[in-house]
Design a protein that fits this description.
two-stranded antiparallel sheet; mainly alpha; transmembrane helix; 1% strand; single chain; 463 residues; 2 strands
């Protein structure tokens, strides 16, 4: 399928007429451009029910939860100036690439996930590659939430029980909360998630402020490449919500309103990252640790983790839901026709959905136990997947939507062509350099005996 049909100036209609016109004027739905959920007027389960602020709440809960916990340690590694510059610049680029995902979705209304986008870009091979990548990425994200839940429970209880038990409890809680079939219901949990993480980091900032300056603050840092880039991958991870954008838009009442949710997300998360990073690092200094909630005394640390538990769980639930929905839709959508099991309260539909969710959280639990370290796990998954889903693939989308004849037609078009080509190269560089830095850190960690063995009962609490 050509992405050039009826697109006069790449995202020109997007710019001239706004999101409202894109689908109607640019893209008459072709035979294979079906609506993913079919006609749900008489369906038992209606998916397209979210208004824009609910989508924004989901995006904010998915993105900010674990990302914000690693930001202060990034400032400690890179220095105050580099930390601020990277948070702002990578956040700005993430906004532009998110906007392009919205444009691609409106150009192809049937796209529900990265696998669908891969089908448009490169046929069946593209579908399988991007679909598998999205599933693997999101299962690893779920694993990071199980891991963080384990650390939280261990910290709250002072290691009173086996850490494997806490990891199992975290996975079970997430599994139960993933079972609702639509994102609209989970969006209310997302509001609680956002309040939870903001309250937790506020307590942390107050705690470090009351404790006073604990160490020196550097304006710049002198690091080797591996250490410096590993810190950069933490910022990339903090903006890595793009992988779920197609699914969020697919369940919105008005997909054209996605841009409102995107701007709300990017303004909120960039502001939070800057404030938390600057304040915690300014007081904790060289003693800054990750996750960020570990920078206070033990009492406040337990309180912060207790308050943060909802966001640790709910954000994981959002990732698990998007992953499960991809598999579920793939099973029950054939040649553009949605099976009745997708929208009906049938035994087949519900047992399949629950089985998929169970499989995802079981694998996530295993990942959390086999790879029991925080920053390096974030570094590996950011390097392999977030580099493309958050940055590189949006450049590919732009080139697909923009005819060759238009790319160099005007000075402004030439600037956009160079910019989006740079975004693709940026994604490739982040993947290679970040993977090298993450693997190097893991090797050094094991060499220095810094990590516990797999499936250990040893406490993972931050002392």
């Amino acid at each position: 399928m050509s992405g050039h049909d009826g697109v006069p100036n790449g995202t020109g209609a997007y710019e001239k007429h706004g999101l409202t016109e894109q689908t109607n004027k640019e893209s008459a739905v072709k035979a294979d451009e079906f609506d993913v959920y079919g006609d749900d007027a008489s369906a038992d389960i209606k998916y397209r029910t979210m208004v824009w602020w609910k989508a924004a709440a989901l995006m904010l809960a998915e993105t900010v939860s674990l990302g914000i916990l690693s930001i202060p340690s990034v400032f400690q590694s890179l220095g105050m100036v580099a930390g601020c510059i990277l948070v702002i610049s990578l956040g700005g680029i993430a906004t532009v690439t998110g906007y392009m995902i919205g444009a691609f979705k409106l150009r192809y209304p049937h796209v529900h996930n990265m696998a669908d986008a891969g089908m448009i870009l490169a046929g069946p091979i593209g579908r399988e590659v991007l679909g598998a990548a999205q599933v693997i990425f999101m299962v690893f994200l779920c694993g990071s939430h199980v891991l963080t839940g384990m650390i939280a429970f261990d910290t709250i209880t002072a290691g009173a029980s086996c850490s494997v038990l806490w990891a199992g409890i975290s996975a079970i809680i997430c599994l139960v909360l993933t079972i609702p079939r639509t994102l609209d219901g989970i969006s209310y949990l997302s509001v609680a998630s956002f309040i939870s993480i903001v309250t937790a980091v506020m307590i942390t900032m107050i705690g470090v402020g009351v404790a006073g300056h604990q160490g020196g603050v550097t304006v710049t840092a002198n690091l080797n490449f591996a250490s410096g880039f590993l810190a950069v991958t933490d910022i990339i991870f903090a903006y890595a919500g793009h992988v779920g954008f197609f699914t969020f838009i697919a369940e919105m009442k008005e997909p054209k309103d996605f841009v409102k949710a995107l701007y709300f997300l990017q303004i909120a998360d960039t502001t939070l990252y800057l404030v938390v990073g600057i304040v915690v690092y300014a007081y904790a200094g060289a003693e800054t640790v990750s996750p960020a909630l570990g920078n206070t005394g033990m009492t406040l640390r337990r309180i912060s983790y207790g308050i943060a538990l909802p966001t640790i769980m709910i954000a994981g639930v959002i990732n698990g839901h998007v992953c499960a929905k991809l598999v579920f839709v793939r099973l029950f959508r054939r040649n553009g026709v949605a099976s009745r099991h997708m929208t009906a309260h049938s035994w087949t539909g519900w047992l399949t959905w629950i089985g998929i969710c169970f499989a995802i959280w079981t694998v996530a639990f295993v990942i959390a136990e086999v790879i029991p370290f925080f920053n390096d796990l974030l570094g590996v998954i950011s390097s392999l997947f977030a580099s493309w889903f958050t940055y590189g693939i949006s450049g590919i989308f732009w080139f697909h939507l923009t005819p060759r004849s238009e790319r160099w037609a005007t000075p402004w078009q030439r600037c956009k062509t160079v910019f989006w080509a740079s975004i693709i190269l940026m994604g490739a560089f982040i993947m290679v350099a970040g993977l090298y830095a993450s693997v190097d850190s893991i090797v050094e960690g094991y060499r220095g005996g810094q990590f516990p063995g797999p499936f250990t009962c040893a406490s993972q609490a931050l002392a």
